[in-house]
Amino acid sequence: MNFPLIDSLIKKRTIILDACNSMANPLCYFFFISILLLFANAKTQYHHFVIQATPVKRLCKTHNTITVNGQFPGPTLEVNNGDTLVINVVNRARYNVTIHWHGVKQIRTAWADGPEFITQCPIRPGGSYTYRFTIQEQEGTLWWHAHSSWLRATVYGALIIHPKEGEFYPFPNPRRETPILLGEWWDANPIDVVRQATRTGAAPNVSDAYTINGQPGDLYRCSSKDTTIVLVDSGETSLLRVINAALNQQLFFTVANHKLTVVGADASYVQPFTTSVLMLGPGQTTDVLITGNQPPARYYMAAQAYASAQGAPFDNTTTTAILEYKNTPCAVQGIKINPIFPSLPPFNDTATATAFTTSFRSPSKVELPTEIDENLFITVGLGLKNCPKGASSSSCQGPNGTRFAASMNNVSFVLPPNFSILQAHQQGIPGIFSTDFPAVPLVKFDYTGNVSQSLWQPVPGTKVYKLKYGAKVQVVLQGTSIVTGENHPIHLHGYDFYIIAEGFGNFNPQTDTAKFNLVDPPRRNTASLPVNGWSVIRFVADNPGVWLMHCHLDVHITWGLAMSFLVENGVSELESLEDPPVDLPVC
């Protein structure tokens, strides 16, 4: 039984029962008892995460890698919809750390969301913090990862949400389920990589390999003996839970000679559709069914970059795992049977990426906000900062002696140094942030055209946009061509949203509104903003707290490609942020 959740409901019984008494409605009492019985079947899971340095050997070389419980990738958490998670995180590493539960809505529990200096101060070396939250009306695949500096390069794992006990998937039950975590590996300490880039102002070094479930695969040196193998029986259907946990790269994913039926994304079900290739931005998840309907053999799963930024360096290697039929013929007389290799799109195949991302639909008509209270237009893109006066040339190694930057509406987001924004808001501490994030660009321009270099330098700031509880919000995300156009995976904490349209070029409110899908748009927590294009999302601000919205390419959030929404409390206790936990880390 989920005793903490039931106890929370019992504490609120006076509010609810008083309301029932005032309405003199027997159905109200029935509803209250039904809620208690519903959660009586839910469970509370307790986990212990130790953040520690662990020797990990990849590409012939051993690194002291930051892990959880000595595992890379970290532990897979499996829960049911409605369960509560209590996870005690102990930091035995030499870096500050937080953990973000990517895609979990955190209803009233923003203190457990995890982004450093947004909802909490970091867990210092030697410190600990217990994250407590409940999964509410979510099913499918999410994941968890560090949200401090570049630690999530190796500190991540799957979070699998099964239906409530006694309920089932809206598709035929698969014979087996396998998480497929796509990652990125540096033959160096990732923290050193980002610190060097911060010192120089240049772009960081690209990764040396991609990985599937932590292993680079057969095409890299010193890697073939540990290549990930996924077993399948002839005729059986399996569910692959594909997660792009890479730090800085969108990825194509495919399985040789097999079709993939997409049934879910970001812990929401979708209208099933069949494809031969997936494209996931960092942060996104996709659930696919795969049937063992090919001749028994070994088939490569493979992932490689979708790199949309023209001229920008990227890791142009390919990671592989092996889909192996259990009745695959054995090698004869020592002759090795090589796996069958798939065809992957070219690295710059925006047409294939777009065909995939625009195929998603919700399973049925959705309750979509139509009367909009807050209509925002937010530009998303890179920028350059002039070299500070007196700075050495070694600290300004970006283009033409500048430093790389990034922004939303020309505001380059700066994390507070000594308070989290949520703490400052809750305690009324002035001077930590301001509420003047612009709802529209202060200067209108040809966003995806030849932009004047006078608009390339963003203004640093810790600015949030305030929303009233229950506000119906529409955000037009507009990519820019400043420095270079690029596909940006935009993630919103604390919410799912509906993607009602996307396109290329500059968004035109007179003509592009005709493209809005107001019937069955997909529900996501991370949107792929097309290269030199736009996306339109909608959500209802019914979760109080401070919620980061940012590009999930970590190099871009390092440069400032982020902003935050501050959602005010509603009227009742159930519409208000819970009190902060007693063990919330202090700065």
Can you characterise this structure?
The structure is a single chain. With about 575 residues, the protein is mainly β. It folds into three domains: about 25-170, Immunoglobulin-like, CATH 2.60.40; about 170-360, Immunoglobulin-like (Sandwich); about 375-575, Immunoglobulin-like (Sandwich), CATH 2.60.40. The chain contains seven helices and 32 strands. The strands form seven sheets. Strands 10-9-12-17-14-15 form a six-stranded mixed beta sheet, with no helix packed on it. A six-stranded mixed beta sheet has the order 21-20-25-30-27-28. Strands 11-19-18-13-16 form a five-stranded mixed beta sheet. Helix 6 links the parallel strand 22 (about 410-415) and strand 23. The protein is globular. The two termini are about 35 Å apart. Mean pLDDT is about 95; it is low at about 1-20 and about 35-40. GO terms for molecular function: copper ion binding; hydroquinone:oxygen oxidoreductase activity; oxidoreductase activity.
Share of helical residues: 10-25%
Shape: globular
Q: Number of DSSP strands?
A: 32
Query: CATH homologous superfamily of the largest domain?
Result: Cupredoxins -  blue copper proteins
Q: Work out the radius of gyration.
A: 24 Å
- Mean pLDDT comes to 93
CATH domain class name of the largest domain: Mainly Beta
Q: Which sequence of strands runs across the widest sheet? A: 10-9-12-17-14-15
| Distance between the ends | 36 Å
Point out poorly predicted stretches: 1-20, 34-39
Overall number of structural domains: 3
Largest sheet: 6 strands, mixed
